[in-house]
Write a structure and sequence with these properties.
- By secondary structure, this protein is of the alpha+beta class.
- It has 6 helices and 9 strands.
- The strands form 2 sheets. It has a 7-stranded mixed β-sheet with strand order 2-1-5-4-3-8-9, with helices on both faces. Strands 6-7 form a two-stranded antiparallel sheet.
- A hairpin with a 4-residue loop joins strand 1 and strand 2.
- Helix 2 packs across helix 6.
- The chain is globular.
- The protein starts with a helix and ends with a helix.
- About 10% of the residues have low confidence.
Length: 211
């Protein structure tokens, strides 16, 4: 009886070691060159004004990944939930991966510069993430940046000149450390029961590409 038991011990130990090794290993990541938007002509440098009235360029964030979302603070049903989901997903990722999470800069760019002043953006972005940056500018500046990022926006007149809406692309980008486009972040599709932009999906997308 003692002989067979002794022969099984090394095999059991080897299997246990392999199991522990598999549990501790991080999931494999694909090269950034294989990202869904790799090579797309999306993005480019710009100079806009942040929520503190400071001029900011896109290039100054080189070395960091960037979540870039175009929207506006008066958006009735899309922008706020999207920002909530994106920033909750980022916070969850930061909690599990503090060093990598610190390499991600969230950026909100308004498509409604007439109403979204620096002061308005400051109150808006601070509600979602302490490091979020809100950017505004002149109408021409915003139009130029939107074109670089393949973003559509247009004014929809309301009941009064002040009570208008902005139709715009729902396109949250994940940009790489060189400012290159990597992927579209998950976003909830309006009027559906499923939250396609849920924070856990945002977190999972960040885990694919941030390193």
């Amino acid at each position: 009886m003692s002989g067979p038991a002794m022969n099984k011990t090394p095999l059991f130990a080897l299997l246990a070691l392999l199991f522990i090794s598999a549990c501790n290993s991080a999931p494999s990541q694909q090269p950034l060159s294989t990202a869904p938007l790799a090579g797309a002509k999306i993005g480019g440098d710009f100079l806009l004004t942040d929520q503190n009235g400071k001029k900011r360029s896109f290039k100054e964030f080189d070395g960091s990944y960037r979540i870039v979302y175009f929207g506006y603070t008066n958006c009735p049903d899309i922008c706020t939930p999207d920002m909530q989901n994106l920033m909750a997903g980022l916070k969850a990722y930061e909690k599990k991966n503090p060093e990598l999470g610190a390499k991600i800069q969230p950026i909100f760019i308004t498509v409604d510069p007439l109403r979204d002043t620096s002061a308005v953006l400051k109150q808006f972005v601070s509600a979602f993430h302490p490091r979020a940056i809100g950017l505004t500018g002149t109408g021409a500046e915003i139009a130029e940046v939107a074109k670089k990022f393949a973003i559509y926006s247009g004014r929809v007149e309301g009941s009064s000149p002040e009570n208008y809406l902005m139709s715009h692309s729902q396109t949250p980008y994940l940009m790489g450390p060189k400012g290159e486009p990597l992927a579209l972040m998950p976003a909830d599709v309006p009027n559906t029961d499923v939250n396609e932009g849920a924070p856990d999906l945002v977190e999972a997308e960040l885990a694919k590409w941030v390193r």
